[in-house]
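Protocol step 4 of 5: obtain the predicted structure for the target chain.
Materials: sequence only (see below). No template structures provided, no constraints applied. The aim of this step is simply to have a reference model before the mutagenesis design in step 5. Sequence pasted as it appears in the construct record:
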Amino acid sequence: MSKFCSNCGAEMDDAAIVCGNCGASVGKPSGVAGVLPANLNTDKIKKIAIPVCAGVLALIVLIIAISAISSHSGYRGIVNKVITYGYKNQKYEKFPKFTSKMVLDYYEDIAGNSDEDAEEMISDIYETVFDSCSDYFEEELETSKYGIKYKVEKVKDLNKTKRESMLYKYLDEDEYDNYEKMKEIKVNVTAKKGSRDEDVDLYIYIVKEKGGWKLLDVSYAK
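Step 4 output (structure tokens):
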């Protein structure tokens, strides 16, 4: 007696377990494992699997993109710029680009309303801070060539008293309420050469203003 494929209806030999016409499995002999069910349509599986795989891939790409963006935006973006331009590249002229407007305005007044002179003054201030820290690393490691790595150890919101003590230099008291969001970020910076290393704690102060977080001040402790 002949049998017929349950998927496409083609005639098959009694002993056949796979349809010669459509490739569908129609049964399995006893004791044989791993043969696909007779009603399984491989074309349908492919149609489902392809968009599912594409969706998973898209999700992975999105997660990577979000991670990359978060590392270069918000307070972490400021930290990355401080470490990169302060320690790794020594491009102090970059600091005014992400410095708070209140600081820029303050030094502009000192410089006689000259933007260029104000930015140069700010660059010189940060150059002094990081040169001092670099000198410490060089002295301790006995070399000027070393690698830098860092870790954000603590982020805290500044209370009203601390905020006002930092704003006092730059603003009149009636302007304090415009800057209610400020953070202190403690960053451990390690200089490493071979098996030797030395570290300092860097304190980065940032303020939230129009356009996002901006740099207010940087200091370090051995």
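Step 4 remarks: The chain has two domains: 1-40, 72-221. The beta strands are 3-4, 11-12, 147-157, 182-193, 196-209, 212-221.
Proceed to step 5.
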